[in-house]
């Protein structure tokens, strides 16, 4: 770990010391900064949005539906909740409005999703038996080597949501997935969920799925809202000295 810390620039160390209270948490963020080549500003943003507390927290059935170590990597690849603060939308925003804003700010969305996600498309058309269906958001995960179907629900999670998600996953597996790809993973993003209901709903599902909440700007404490970098700052960081 000392060797890893030595790879970080001095200003990264200052941020770790200033923002985090204990050495174990600092080591975790330092390792992630090195793994994902975060700039100092991105590191600070990840700390302030509590990445550690959110990582691997989505309710999922991955241990039952995926082999190790893929199940572990899939679990760690999902968060709960997801922060969509960069969209500037209120909690009353509708599904399609959120979806369109996520695509418009896809750079920030990919940063929030985490390393490995590649954007494939929005409202992806599927022709099944002559009927048309549209997937909200489709991604490919480069480390998991699989497609990831993301469905947005503007209200509270309901068990029947998984039926629609599973249908889309089956269609991707049969029509889009290549032979060398792993089975498609599904992620249902909802405004709220009952964790016990979510666990029960996943209990009999044979397809790998995760359920997580998303939070808009108003869900963050006021002091955290003011400390977050602006969209413009993030864009400049990613396009400019993001490798620093």
TrEMBL record:
Q: What is this protein called?
A: Putative nuclease of restriction endonuclease-like (RecB) superfamily
Q: Where is the YhcG PDDEXK nuclease domain?
A: 76-229
Q: Where is the YhcG N-terminal domain?
A: 2-54
Tell me which Pfam families the record gives: DUF1016_N, YhcG_C
- List the Gene3D superfamilies: 3.40.1350.10
Do the record's keywords include Membrane? no
InterPro entries the record matches:
PD-DEXK-like_domain (IPR053148), tRNA_endonuc-like_dom_sf (IPR011856), YhcG_C (IPR009362), YhcG_N (IPR041527)
Domain of life of the native organism: Bacteria
MF annotations from Gene Ontology: endonuclease activity; nucleic acid binding
Q: Does Nuclease show up as a keyword for this record?
A: yes
Keywords, in A-Z order: Endonuclease, Hydrolase, Nuclease
């Amino acid at each position: 770990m000392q060797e890893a810390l030595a790879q970080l620039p001095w200003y990264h160390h200052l941020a770790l010391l200033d923002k985090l209270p204990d050495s174990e948490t600092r080591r975790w963020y330092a390792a992630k900064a090195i793994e994902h080549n975060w700039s100092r500003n991105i590191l600070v943003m990840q700390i302030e949005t509590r990445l550690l507390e959110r990582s691997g927290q989505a309710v999922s059935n991955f241990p039952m539906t995926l082999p190790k170590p893929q199940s572990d990597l899939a679990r760690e690849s999902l968060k709960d909740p997801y922060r969509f603060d960069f969209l500037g939308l209120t909690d009353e925003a509708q599904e399609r409005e959120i979806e369109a804003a996520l695509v418009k700010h896809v750079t920030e969305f990919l940063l929030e999703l985490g390393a490995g996600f590649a954007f494939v498309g929005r409202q992806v058309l599927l022709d099944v038996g002559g009927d048309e269906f549209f997937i909200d958001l489709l991604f490919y995960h480069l480390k998991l080597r699989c497609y990831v179907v993301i469905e947005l629900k503007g209200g509270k999670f309901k068990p029947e949501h998984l039926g629609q998600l599973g249908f889309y996953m089956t269609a991707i597996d049969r029509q889009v997935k290549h032979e060398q790809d792993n089975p498609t993973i599904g992620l249902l993003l909802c405004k709220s969920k009952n964790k016990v209901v979510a666990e029960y709903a996943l209990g009999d599902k044979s397809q790998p799925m995760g359920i997580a909440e998303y939070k808009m700007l108003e869900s963050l404490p006021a002091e955290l809202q003011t400390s977050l970098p602006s969209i413009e700052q993030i864009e400049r960081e990613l396009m400019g000295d993001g490798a620093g």
